[in-house]
Amino acid sequence: MGFGSGENMDCYKNFAHIYDELINVDINYKKWSDEIIKICEAEGISKDSYLDLACGTGNLTEEIGLYFKKVWAVDLSYDMLMEAEGKLRKKGIKANFVHQDLSKLKLNRKFDLITCCLDSTNYLLNDSDIISYLKGVSELLNDNGLFIFDINSYYKLSEILGNNIFTYDDEEVFYSWENEFEDGVVNMYLTFFIRDGQVYKRFDENHQERAYKEEDVEKFLDEAKLKVVKKLNNYEYKKIDEKTERIVYIIKKA
Question: Which of 208, 228, 15 is nearest to 129 (CA)?
Fold first, then answer.
């Protein structure tokens, strides 16, 4: 999860340094990257240039970047980009990091593989932004390239996350996560208490994700002259049904 549009640009400012501790518990980036590389090989994708959109702290970037000659990463959070740059440098991966809005992509090059994972696309809240984002991807994608992204499903945002409260507690971090689902958007209000010596420091975050229906996503893709090669259920070859929580789109130019 990284940044979508400017409406969420202040999110993660305080969150970046604890992001991995909180997120890595549930996400197997190695499994995701292995599946993405398998798809690239099956589709005959060249491993020359790779772009990771909304890269966050670079967890997926560093896994997939090992397979490519040239690596680029985009995020709207300077703090996340700094975390990602340090992480990839330690692994010996040379990468270019760009501070940019997903809905205003401008890079003077083309890529064999573009990814945008961990529901970052859900952060685009209106039709014009997601269409602009997909058109930007189409411009950046090589003619025989591959674009892979995932979304939190409408079911997950409306039924699992929406109108629910979650908490997390250990000796170093406590947070409460209160959600409300309204007009197709889940508003997430998070309060953190982070231990700093003998005291706990508080900060608050407000995130929003739009719940997209499959038919709407495919309409936007068509408008951007992109086509669906296949869809996966949470990076696995299982049938997508009404209770699928994460839908993965494998995309090529139309």
Answer: 208
Question: If DSSP codes are grouped into helix, strand and coil, which group holds residue 89?
Answer: helix
Radius of gyration for the chain, computed over Cα atoms and rounded to the nearest angstrom:
18
- Give which of 213, 51, 16, 246 is closest to 130, Cα–Cα: 213
Q: What are φ and ψ of residue 230, in 5° steps? A: -165, 165
Residue 197 has pLDDT above 80, yes or no: yes
Q: In this model, does residue 91 exceed pLDDT 50?
A: yes
Q: What is the β-pairing status of strands 226-233 and 141-152?
A: unpaired
Cα distances (angstroms) measured from residue 65 to each of 52, 97, 121, 140: 9, 13, 21, 17
Spatial neighbors of 90 by CB under 8 A, at least 6 apart, are none
pLDDT at 9 exceeding the cut of 70: no
Q: What is the dihedral of CA 95, 45, 221, 1, to 10 degrees?
A: -40
Nearest to 227 by CA among 216, 214, 236, 218: 218
Beta bridge partners of 141: 111
Judge whether 227 and 252 are in contact, CB under 8 Å.
yes
Question: Tens digit of pLDDT for each residue in 35-82?
Answer: 999 999 999 999 999 999 999 999 999 999 999 999 999 999 998 999
Q: What are phi and psi of 25, to 5 degrees?
A: -60, -35
Report in angstroms the alpha-carbon separations of 22 from 1, 9, 120, 192.
Answer: 12, 20, 17, 11
Q: How many CA atoms lie within 13 A of 206 on its CB side?
A: 6
Q: How far is CA 205 from CA 26, 155, 178, 179, 208, in A?
A: 20, 23, 11, 12, 10
pLDDT score at 196: 86
